[in-house]
Every structure is written in structure tokens, then in C-alpha cells.
Write a structure and sequence with these properties.
Lysozyme, mainly alpha, 7 helices, 179 residues, disordered N terminus, globular, two-stranded antiparallel ribbon
């Protein structure tokens, strides 16, 4: 019994300790102190995306950096393109052989030469053919990207929310539903 209580206490303390930023630096701003994580935001996003994709046993896990860099390059939410892969191909696990098409691009009939190329092409196309045309949210993209699906948008948003909260103890949980 004592071992169980000690194990629970250690696990609780580990969760609290590990949920705090590992590297913090104090900055002064007008006399008020602000704690800021010294790791670049991109590193945190890449790490979170890697762990998230790994939890799905995705072949895209090692391309987390490419997803984040392309999102930044084209001004996209870093969670959008990975979320689309979740809906369209279970994060790259169910694709036409050798196509690197985890996005349902051209109804799955398009073949990319590599994962890197697919991430770049899809991110660029989302920016130019969707965002720049005013289709700047999954709600606006859905009817064009995945007609006539009534659930695509909600599934993309669900994966984006799961990715946002992945590994966080106090993150607000969203209800999942399938229509």
C-alpha cells in the first residue's frame, strides 16, 4: 500500500514538474516580469507534432519539421496540413502505393515524388488556391476541398484540436463525434 501511494505521489510530482517549461528566462517589460520559454516556438511545435504523429504510428512522423516550416512559409496554421492527412489517409498510412499522397489530392489519383514534395505542394496550394481566395478556415475550405462531404470540416478541426492539446495536462477537451 505504501509503495502504491509513493508511486502515485512520484507520478503526480513528475506530471507537475514536466508540465512546466524546462527552460525559462525572465524578461523585464515596463517593470513587470514575464517568464518566457527560451526554446523557439517552432521547436515546440515540431516536437509536439512528432509525438502526435508517432502516437498514430504515422510514416509522416519524421517530417514534422517540414510541416511546420511549410506552414510558416505560407502563413498557414501549423496544424492544418497534418490534420488533413489524418482525415484523408489516417496520417499517411492509407495511401495509393508509392504516391506520397496523404491528402486525398486529386481524389487520391495524384502521385508526389516524396513526402517533402507533397508537404510543400499541398501547403503552397492551400495558401494560393484557398487562403488567398478567402477560404481561410476549414469551414470555408471543406466544401471546395472535399465536396460533397458534410463531415470533412469537423474531422479536420477535431484533429487540429487534438494536436493543439496533445500532451498537455490541462488542455480543454473537445467532444468528438462522427456523423
Amino acid at each position: 500500500m505504501k509503495k502504491q501511494i509513493l508511486s502515485i505521489l512520484i507520478a503526480f510530482l513528475a506530471i507537475i514538474f514536466l508540465s512546466q517549461p524546462a527552460f525559462a528566462q525572465e524578461k523585464m517589460a515596463g517593470g513587470s516580469a514575464v517568464l518566457e520559454n527560451s526554446l523557439p516556438e517552432a521547436d515546440q511545435r515540431v516536437s509536439k507534432l512528432e509525438k502526435f504523429l508517432e502516437s498514430y504510428n504515422s510514416p509522416l512522423t519524421e517530417y514534422a519539421q517540414a510541416f511546420v516550416e511549410s506552414a510558416d512559409k505560407y502563413g498557414l496554421d501549423w496544424k492544418l496540413v497534418p490534420a488533413i492527412t489524418g482525415v484523408e489517409s489516417t496520417f499517411g498510412k492509407q495511401i495509393p502505393a508509392g504516391s506520397y499522397n496523404a491528402y486525398g489530392w486529386a481524389n487520391g489519383a495524384y502521385a508526389f515524388q516524396s513526402w517533402e514534395e507533397s508537404i510543400e505542394v499541398v501547403s503552397k496550394a492551400l495558401k494560393e488556391k484557398y487562403v488567398d481566395q478567402g477560404l481561410d478556415t476549414p469551414f470555408k475550405m471543406g466544401p471546395v476541398y472535399a465536396p460533397p462531404s458534410k463531415t470533412w470540416t469537423y474531422k479536420v478541426i477535431s484533429f487540429m484540436n487534438k494536436l493543439e492539446c496533445f500532451g498537455e495536462v490541462n488542455c480543454l477537451k473537445e467532444l468528438d463525434f462522427t456523423l
